[in-house]
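Quick one: structure tokens for this chain, please?
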Amino acid sequence: MSRLANTLAATAAAGVLAAGGTLYYLGSETAQETEESDDVTAVSLELPRVNLPAVSVPAVASPDVVSFDVASPAVRETEVFRADVASLSVASLSVASSEVEKAEVVTPEVVITRFVSALKLEELKIPEPPDPERIPLVIELQRTLQALFRDKRNLAYDKTVGIDSAAWKKWIEIYRKNEPYTLEYKALPSGLRIICEVKCPQNAEQIETLDKNLEAYREAGYNAVLLTFDLTEQLSKLLDVVAFVRSKDMRVVFAYTGPERLEWSVFQDPDKLASFLRSLGAVSDAFLLGWRRTSLHLLIPDPQWINFLVKNARGFNRDLPVIGEAYLGQTAESNESERAVTYNIPENVSAVLCFGIGYKGVAIGRALDLVFPKTKGLPRIGLAIGERPYFDTRNNTKKSVSENNAIKAQIERRFLAAGCIGTMTIRGDGSDGIYDKTLTENLCLPYKEEEKL
């Protein structure tokens, strides 16, 4: 579907999800409301806004220019003879030999020399001018990238792009070959209640915290987790995490991701990425095509990108289910005031994660079909976020963890009532430490207070 068609699809749902329009909301509900009280009334409410993380583009500032006055050196005199300026000489000054053996003449040149020495300016190196022979290579690289890659915003922010990057050379070759991959349909088990997310623990304390959280969420009825990686981890440790989660009688959905920062490069060494995908795919229960840095709100995927991920995720496990995305919100191809509907749904995908409507009060049954018409007839997983985006940080509702968890459980029930085969729930408020480093979705870390599920 083209960008215009996607935008029109969102506009067509304006009666359901458009700022300033009518949104079907559930009336007078509380955190403890049961699924039998899902009557809806039409009220006017602004569409929940999906906020993108602020991105600062590093800039090279010019060094500050320090201004200073060179004053005549102060002279402590013991005796100065009155004389005309013309006749004034060193001999006219009498300095006690006990104070100084040799007078130092401090001139402006001496002051400047000392100032330069203090700043160690002699250690600064002026960069050499660009090699004229490299400039055509840089120009050709940019032309190639612009022709091959759809997401131009990603190219602008990715600091690893360059003619000396071995990883980018490999990705260009992958994109040029454009080898097709036919995804064979594999069913995703219904009834998954996924909590996200688990990252690779860094020490014994984080392992202990993960153990405690997994036990708590399992007792609360969750039977699966989302495991994420960004290639900074040791593969062997990630495989240990998968085994640990499965020992809790919980299933594992995994995703290649990264922090929600545009300057974080997803186009890392494809050989290393392929190794992680194949190894994790061999022991996991499903693969999610995008999450955080690799999801639709921060990356518009190309067919070559999707084929590479899926082909390698199924490299050692041909029966691995694959979950696509349906997203409502801002993307690289929409402006700040535009809420477009974007899809990442390969043919024969096992299920689709519906992202952007999992908030308190949304009439999910209507929203699923009107906002995401392309998902009709496909197995769907509802993403439950909470009362509103960033409800514990940027848009703090002042509710406790237990109150917010009750709201999420209510949203899960509505997704299931609307026909979804499963749900995925964000452990925190979705910010993952952007606004408060102590509030993260990572189950290896504590969350502001004892979680009561």
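DSSP finds eleven helices and 13 strands in the chain.
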